[in-house]
Every structure is written in C-alpha cells, then in structure tokens.
Amino acid sequence: MGADMKIIVFSDSHRELNHMRDVIKREKPDYVFHLGDHDTDAEQISREFQLLPVAMVRGNCDGWSDTSKTLTLNVGGISFFLCHGHTLGVKTSYMRAIFAAREQGADVLLFGHTHIAEQDESNGLKLLNPGSCGCGYQPTYGYFIIEHNAIRDWGIRKC
Question: Which among 26, 100, 115, 117 could disulfide-bond with 132, CB atoms 3.0 to 4.6 Å apart, if both were Cys?
Fold first, then answer.
C-alpha cells in the first residue's frame, strides 16, 4: 500500500451481496466498513475477500447478532465512528449520532438506516451515509481516500 489508502463504506445490503462484490473488485479498497442490515453480508464478504479488513456494526435487522452497535476505529490516522443509526434516531435528527461521534473523538461519523445517501460536515465532523448498496433503484456506497493521515477525497458513488 502506497501513500494513499482507500476505504469503502457499505450499508443496508439486505442480503444483496453482488453490488458489494462488484465494488470491491472495481475499487480494490484497503478497508471495508459495513454499517449493518445485514451484518452477515459483511461476514460473507470477509470470507470471500480474506485479505481485506472488514469492520462492521449491527443494524436494526441484525437483532439476533452479537456484533457491536457502534465502533470507533482509527484507520490511516483518521478516527471513524461507525453506527447503523437506528439506536441514535437518525431518521428524525442527526444530533444524537453527532454527539456520540464527538464523545468518541471521531473525525468522521458513518451511519446508515435511512437508505438515503448523503454527505455533510458539522463543525469539522464529516458525516456520511452511504445509502443502501442492496435496496432501491440506484444502489450507492461511500468512499474515503486518505493520504498522509488526512482525508484527501470522500463522497458517495453509485454501485
């Protein structure tokens, strides 16, 4: 891995793995984050791409899972707060999720649940919802390019 590191972010795959497989083959990421619904999809991707680190959190459709509801990771010098968002009320407001991310000292808040892709910034905290890679007419995913411990590029792409 050179100076650049690529992270791909999926959410709400809902047992549709083909979009994730295609994106991973095309993008060749260094890391994958899966934000729930279904965490078993992330486990399957991890088995298929054994050299690819995959981090995951539990979504509202993963109630039987013992996967954590939130996770804070430092990857490439950037602190990411991962959650599905259902326990933090993201369909109503992002404030609880923003507070939780700030409480963990995160640079980036990642959440799903709404199936609506969006990116924003709140007083230096980057917010990204990759949308759904498994549902809807236009499946989407998120990405981050990190270079020298800084985010060089980030956003949302169509699967």
Answer: 115
